[in-house]
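Long-time lurker, finally posting.

We've been working with TonB family protein (Pontibacter populi) and I want a structural starting point before designing mutants. I don't trust myself to interpret raw outputs, so I'm hoping someone here can both generate the structure tokens and explain anything notable. Sequence follows.
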Amino acid sequence: MKILYTCLTAFFIVVTVHFASAQTQTIYYNKGGIKLLSSEGAYFFEQTDYNASGGGTRTRFLKANNVKVSLYNYSSFEGEEDNNEILNGDYSLWYDSGKLSEKGSYENNKLHGKVSTWFENGQLSYEKFYFKGELKDTLKGYYEDGALRRIEVYKEGGMVDGKVFSKAGADLPYFPAFVLPEFPGGENAMIAYISKNLKYPEEALRYGISGLVLITFIVEKDGSINTLEVIKSVYDVLDNEAIRIIRSMPRWKPGLNEGNLVPVSFTLPVRFAFSD
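Top reply, 14 upvotes:
Generated this for you. Predicted structure of TonB family protein:
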């Protein structure tokens, strides 16, 4: 069973949409997250339903069987260039089997309220609480058989107490539940790598096109990068260059969940700008 643990960042949003009335848009993607011109060769399809007030929902499905894998609510699909869409309301994620894997809510692009995650067998795996994007109160984690695995207490976004237990209930030395993937050498090394290797497409230079592309991808258990997806598009050649630079990266230090190697979904912004 493959479980994906998502790294949430402060970045959200896709393409600015202009509309006068409610409408629906469907976009197809291959397994690597590349947007396709048609349904041919698609692995996912994403349906965005716009309402008359400027918001709506974005739902992703597996093309093979129409199984729903994610659903997000938005209060707005328009806004500033680097933060176009505003997540507001409930969201849900599902396993490829169709079973619920995560449920929570956003308030102005920040997690707010209870977030629950489940194992594929239906057993609760984590229950945690957020206030405007910061963890608060008590986080509880469970083993797949329902036994209590950990308790963590948070105040003002920081952990003030944490305990880890064996399946039999014995105390264990504390270790963090989640360790995020890391580019070799850390964030500064990643920025240097992108700066050195990014190539500004000639077509975008010719037409004076710039902007911020947001890419999500999965850092696998062996540190390799897989399943890239453009979640904020600027222009096709810029989107493709952002994907190329991320795909060319060396293997990352993989993420951990409860001490075990796990694939982790990561979001990374790639900015294209002209020098003064």
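Before you design anything, note these points.
Confidence is low (pLDDT under 50) at residues 1-21.
Residues 176-276 form a domain with the TolA/TonB C-terminal domain fold (CATH 3.30.2420.10).
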